[in-house]
Design a protein that fits this description.
single chain; 0% strand; 365 residues; mainly alpha
Length: 365
C-alpha cells in the first residue's frame, strides 16, 4: 500500500511525472538517432522500470472513494472473502476471477494483479509489434487521456480491453487469439463490439470504405442520433440493464458525462483517424495488420458517434479509444517517413500527451 503518497495527490504526481518523462524523451529524440546504442539503452532500461513501477503504483493505491468504483470492487471482494456466492451477473468470468482470488490474496494484491492485467498487455503488444522500439508505443499508451481512469476506476473494462490487445499479439494464431477474445468477453461483454469489428476486418479490410462509413456517421448522428440510442438500447447492449442505462439514463451531477453532441470528444477521437488517413492515403503506407487496427477503430468509434448524445457515452467511446495510441505510433515505428524521423516521434508524443495534460489542468479544472 502506497501510504507515503497522499491520496488526493495520486493522479497529479502521476501526470507530472509523465510530463517530465515525455520531455526527457523528446530531448533524446532531438540529440540521438532512434537506433543509436545510447538511445536503445535509455528506452529499454527506462521502459522496464516504468512498467514495474506503474503496476506497483496503481496496484498498491489506497482503497479510497477518490478512485471511483474501486470502493464497489472492494465491497464485492470482501463479500467473496466471507464466502459469498456469485449472484446472477452478466460478466460471470470477472466474478469467478474475483471470487477465486478473494480466497487466497489480500485486496491490495488483488488490485495489483488487476493492474498487471491492465498494464502488461500494453507492454506485450508494444514489444511484439515494435521490438527494441517498444518504449515509444508503451509510453503513448500510458499517457493517453483514458489510461488512468480505466486503471483505477473502470478496472474491469480496462482489464478486458487490455486482454483484447494481448490477444492481438497472436493475430496470426487464430486459436490463441480466440482464447484471449473469449477471456475479454467473460470479463466485460461490451468487448463483443471491438471483437466483432476485428473479425469483420478479417473478411473485408478496405480502409477507404470504412473511413467513408465513419464520416457518414457524423451527419447521421446529428439528424437521427436519438433513434440510434433507442435502437441500441433495445438490442444487445440493452440486454444488460447497466449498459442500457448508460444510453438512456440521466447523468448525475459531477460525473464524467455530458449531454449533447460532444464535438470536443469527436475532435479527440479524430486523432488516430487523421493519422491513419495521412499515412495510408497520403503517404501510401501498406500494412494489412495496421489496416485491420484502423478499420476496427473506425467501426467501434462510428458506433460511439451514432450514440454520442447519450449520457455516459464515454463508456462506449473507450471501446475505440483504448486503441488510439497504437494507431498513432504504429506507422512511425514501422517505416521512416520524415528527414528527422526520431525527433518527429518525440514531437508527436508531446502533442498527444499535451491533450491529456491540458484536459486535466485547464479543461476539467
Amino acid at each position: 500500500m502506497m501510504d507515503m503518497v497522499p491520496v488526493m495527490s495520486y493522479y497529479p504526481i502521476y501526470i507530472n511525472l509523465c510530463f517530465f518523462l515525455v520531455l526527457f524523451t523528446l530531448l533524446h529524440t532531438r540529440i540521438l538517432e532512434i537506433n543509436d546504442d545510447k538511445n536503445l539503452v535509455f528506452v529499454n532500461v527506462s521502459g522496464y522500470i516504468l512498467l514495474v513501477a506503474l503496476i506497483i503504483y496503481i496496484g498498491q493505491r489506497p482503497i479510497h472513494g477518490v478512485f471511483g468504483d474501486m470502493v464497489n470492487y472492494i465491497v464485492t471482494f470482501r463479500n467473496y472473502q466471507l464466502g459469498g456466492e456469485i449472484p446472477e451477473v452478466n460478466d460471470y468470468g470477472w466474478h469467478i476471477f474475483m471470487r477465486t482470488l478473494a480466497q487466497v490474496v489480500t485486496p491490495y494484491t488483488f488490485f495489483t494483479i488487476c493492474a498487471f492485467i491492465y498494464i502488461y498487455p500494453l507492454y506485450k503488444i508494444s514489444k511484439t509489434l515494435f521490438r527494441q522500439y517498444w518504449y515509444y508505443a508503451f509510453v503513448l499508451f500510458i499517457v493517453s487521456f483514458s489510461f488512468w481512469t480505466y486503471g483505477v476506476n473502470g478496472v474491469r473494462n480496462g482489464a478486458a480491453t487490455s486482454i483484447f490487445l494481448w490477444g492481438l499479439c497472436y493475430h496470426k494464431n487464430k486459436f490463441v487469439l480466440t482464447l484471449f477474445f473469449l477471456w475479454a468477453i467473460l470479463f466485460h461483454k461490451t468487448l463483443f463490439l471491438p471483437i466483432f469489428a476485428f473479425i469483420v476486418t478479417c473478411f473485408y479490410n478496405n480502409p477507404k470504405v470504412y473511413f467513408k462509413g465513419w464520416l457518414a456517421c457524423i451527419p447521421i448522428s446529428l439528424v437521427l442520433g436519438s433513434v440510434f440510442i433507442s435502437i441500441f438500447s433495445n438490442l444487445g447492449f440493452g440486454s444488460d440493464e447497466r449498459l442500457s442505462g448508460y444510453l438512456t439514463s440521466q447523468a448525475e451531477a459531477g460525473t464524467f458525462a455530458s449531454t449533447g453532441f460532444r464535438w470536443d470528444f469527436l475532435f479527440y477521437s479524430s486523432f488516430p483517424i487523421f493519422a491513419g488517413w495521412y499515412f495510408i492515403f497520403k503517404r501510401g503506407f501498406k500494412d494489412s495488420f495496421y489496416y485491420q487496427l484502423f478499420n476496427t477503430y473506425l467501426i467501434c468509434n462510428g458506433f460511439w458517434v451514432l450514440v454520442i448524445r447519450a449520457n455516459f457515452s464515454n463508456r462506449f467511446a473507450y471501446l475505440s479509444w483504448f486503441m488510439m495510441a497504437l494507431l498513432i505510433i504504429y506507422p512511425f515505428l514501422k517505416q521512416k517517413f520524415f528527414k528527422d524521423h526520431h525527433f518527429m516521434i518525440g514531437k508527436v508524443m508531446v502533442a498527444y500527451f499535451g491533450f491529456t495534460y491540458f484536459m486535466y489542468y485547464l479543461y476539467w479544472g
